[in-house]
Amino acid sequence: MVGVAESSMSQFELLANDAIIYRALLRKQWIDEDTFRVKADAYFLRAGEPGLSVNLASVCSPEQCARLFRKCYGVASLEVGRVREIGLDIQQDSDNHANIVGLPYREDDLALAERLAGLLAKCSYIVWQSE
Amino acid sequence: MTIAQSTKPFSSDVTVTLKRLVALLEEDETDDYGILQPSQSAFKLAMRLVIDAYEAMGNTFLKASVSTDEQGDIRLTWSKQAIDGEVRLVCPANANQKAYLYHELKDDYAVEHDVTAFILVQWLEWLNQA
Questions:
Q1: Which residues touch B123 (CB under 8 Å, ≥6 apart)?
Q2: For each successive 10 residues of chain B (130 residues), what is the average pLDDT?
Q3: Which of A41, A69, A85 to mutate to test the interface with B (most CBs of B within 10 A)?
C-alpha cells in the first residue's frame, strides 16, 4: 500500500542530473559587488523552511522566475547533478517549483550549513540581473 | 577603537568596507525575505572588528563584501577565488549572542567562536598568505 506522503512524492518524476533549476536572488547583497558571483548568503535555510525554494528552468525563463517575486535582483542557475554531487537533492513539489533538500539549519550544524551554502554558491551562475 | 580614535589613514579597501557597512543602515528595515537593516549591536561590533583588524594589518587588510541575513546579523565575506579560500565573519543581531568566523580553503573548513579582532586578523592573514 502506498502512503499519502509517498504518493504525493511520486507525483513528479525524479529530475534528471542535467536539469537546470533557478534560485531567485531576493537581495542585492547576495551578489558579490566585486566578483559579480553569487555569495553563500543566498543558500541558507530560514527557520521552518523545509528546503531552499527553486524554480524549474524547463517551464520558466529566468525573467519569469524573477517576476514571481515583488523584488528580485537576479536569478542564479544551477545544474541538478552538481547539487547532488555535494550531497543534496532536489524535490519537485509542483509543476514549476522544487526545493533543494538536505541542508542543515545553522542552529543545528553551523560549519556544515556555511560549507554547503558556499558550495551551492560556487555552482551557481547568474543568468539574469535586474537593471 | 572608533573611527575618530583610529591613528592610521584609511586605505581604500578598509574605506570601501566601512562604507558598505554604513550603507546597510540605509536599507529598509525589512523586505520580503526578513530583516534587512542590521541591528545596532551587529553594526557596532562589525565596525569595531573591522577597524581593529585594519589597525593591526594596515594595507594588507582586504575589502569585504557585506550583507545582512534575515535575522539582522551582519555577514562580512573575504574571498580569494584563485585559491578557493574564504573567510566569513558573522556579527549577531542579538547582543547576547556571539560572533563567529567561518574559514575554508578548498576542502578544509571550520568555524571559530568567540571572535576577537586578534582572531579575525589571524584568519585574514591566513587567507592573504594562502
A1: B87, B101, B103, B112
A2: 59 93 96 95 97 95 97 96 93 95 97 96 95
A3: A41
B4 part of a folded domain: no
| Per-residue pLDDT tens digits for A52-107 | 999 999 999 999 999 999 999 999 999 999 999 999 999 999 999 999 999 999 99
The values of phi and psi at residue B34, to 5°, are 150, -150
Cell numbers for B129: 598568505
Interface test with A, best of B17, B70, B80, B112 (most A CBs within 10 A): B70
* Interface ipTM: 0.91
Q: Chain B closest CA to A54's CA: distance in Å?
A: 15
Is residue B85, in this structure, part of any structural domain at all?
Answer: yes
Contact residues, chain B to chain A, C-beta under 8 Å? 20, 31-34, 36, 63, 65-70, 75, 77, 79, 81, 86, 88, 100, 102, 104, 109-111
In this predicted structure, the answer to whether residue A47 has a pLDDT above a threshold of 50 is yes
Number of domains in chain B: 1
Query: Which domain does B68 fall in, by range?
Result: 12-129
Helix (H) / strand (E) element for A125: namely strand A125-129
With H, G, I as helix, E, B as strand and everything else as coil, classify residue B78.
strand
Residue B71 lies in a domain: yes
Which set of grid coordinates corresponds to residue A10? 511520486
pLDDT-derived band of residue A9, with 50, 70 and 90 as boundaries? Answer: low
